[in-house]
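Table S2 (text version). Query chain:
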Amino acid sequence: MDGTNSARSLQRTTKRSHVIPLEEPPLVPGAPDRIFVALEQGGRVFIVSEKLTTRVPPIPACDAAGADITKKADAVDGAFMKGGGKDKTLLDQVEKLRNEADAAVCACFAGKVTGTPAFKAAEVQAAAIVAALTGK
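Corresponding structure-token output:
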């Protein structure tokens, strides 16, 4: 989830800053509750993590986006456990499938969240953080 277009437009207005309105990639899919802003200025790098002031609601359709892949991962995980947890190939397959499921959820969320009021609020919050860091 990256909100790339909005981050780029905000980046252009704040010069050498990069705004990450959502974790990239998130550790756990779902609605984020934090905003991360990184800014390089005068040879120094500032990284700010703040709680979002406006809650980003979950998008149920996105929670379902990785459900089929998760079911496959669960089945492979069951086979892995049934075999005594010794087959590294199965373990690798479980990890790959879980990552694919997470990526599907995140891609869906990134595609749907950018036009929401909560995302706009996150952009405003990010701009305020950059302004506080730069004194502008």
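Notes on Table S2: The first strand starts at residue 17 and ends at 20. Strands lie at 17-20, 34-41, 44-51.
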